[in-house]
Specification:
This protein is an alpha/beta fold. It is built from 11 helices and 16 strands. The protein has a 6-stranded antiparallel sheet with strand order 15-14-11-12-13-16. It holds the Pfam family ATPgrasp_Ter.
């Protein structure tokens, strides 16, 4: 059995550590971890580790990675940081190993929420798109507020390239804002106050507020067709980390995931998120990378990092069957490192 050398970035974070859990299920994988820090919890789960420059210094970061790739004979790279997705996408050809990001003829669209919505609408998938409009300026947002959301007491704003809850806010009246503040709802902001801090150079999205059940769907595609889609009900979330959730066999969400992802991706893993509204399931986010809570699918017998290796590195089209109704409960744990 030949060894597959896999490099995982950002091993101090939860996404990398979830990836490593899946990779370590294989007997033929050696995990090489990299991080800008010399000691993290993730170091303890890798076979070998290296310190690298911060991704913001792109040239130095790539140069160091190339040294490690050559030294370790890396076959596959699993990026774990959202901020480095474009770096790896733009350097797919310059780097020898496979890059564990989805392949798409419109990859840039996947990184831009407004453009994703526009493309899906043009392909006939408007039923999955929430009420939305892009803006740059205070004047544009005020027009959106008085027209698109005239009958709504609250609506959402986010940057078009944000991830997790960065740049996310719920806009409302001063009265509603004070009530939210009293009740500890930190993302709710007074509309007029928000208008004063708008940066016109930053494209943003205004979107209807949906209060229904939230779902996250992990999807693996091969040659433009879904191999497996795993809907996950997010029942307990803290600081955007899922602490309690269950894998559900939800036919409508699986079909919605197929409609959307087969319109956008040829091969690889992608994560999409929905909220349940009065008019159906609405797409609220798309992550063209491995996400932190995909480890929930691992517990349901779907090892997405391993699927990537099987399909795109080894060329094996392996069958996969989720164990539905698997529930994940997260808890805090710790490791101890004795330093000289």
């Amino acid at each position: 059995m030949s060894t597959i050398n896999v490099l995982v970035t950002g091993i101090g974070g939860p996404i990398a550590q979830g990836l490593i859990q899946g990779l370590k299920k294989r007997q033929d994988v050696t995990v090489i971890g990299v991080d800008r820090r010399t000691v993290t919890a993730g170091h303890q789960f890798c076979d070998r580790t290296y310190q690298v420059p911060r991704y913001t210094n792109v040239e130095a970061y790539l140069d160091r990675l190339k040294e490690i790739i050559e030294k370790e004979g890396i076959d596959v790279i699993f990026p774990s940081l959202h901020e480095e997705v474009n770096i790896f996408h733009e350097n797919r050809d310059a780097l020898k190993p496979l890059i564990a990001l989805p392949t798409s003829s419109d990859f840039d669209v996947l990184m831009h929420k407004e453009h994703v919505y526009q493309k899906l609408e043009s392909m006939g998938h408007g039923k999955y798109i929430p009420k939305y409009q892009g803006f740059n300026t205070e004047e544009e947002l005020k027009e959106i507020n008085s027209s698109l959301f005239a009958d709504d007491s609250h609506f959402v704003v986010k940057t078009v390239d944000s991830y997790a809850s960065l740049g996310f806010a719920i806009l409302t009246s001063k009265e509603n804002y004070l009530d939210a503040l009293k009740n500890g709802k930190k993302h709710t902001i007074d509309f007029e106050d928000y208008c004063k801090i708008i940066d016109p150079s930053e494209r943003k999205l205004a979107m209807e507020l949906i209060n229904g059940q939230e779902y996250s769907i992990d999807v693996y595609l091969h040659r433009g067709k879904v191999v497996v889609a795993v809907p996950r009900e997010r029942t307990g979330v803290s600081n955007n980390i899922v602490l309690d959730g269950i894998v559900v066999n939800h036919e409508d969400l699986i079909q919605a995931s197929k409609d959307i992802t087969e319109s956008l991706v040829e091969d690889g893993f992608i994560n999409i998120q929905f909220m349940e509204s009065d008019t159906g399931y609405k797409l609220t986010d798309i992550n063209p990378r491995f996400c932190g809570s995909q480890v929930m699918s691992l517990g349901a017998n779907v090892n997405f990092p391993s699927l990537f290796i099987e399909y795109l590195h080894l060329g094996n089209e392996v069958p996969v069957e989720p164990v539905w109704n698997t529930r994940m409960l997260r808890f805090r744990d710790q490791i101890f490192v004795h330093e000289d």
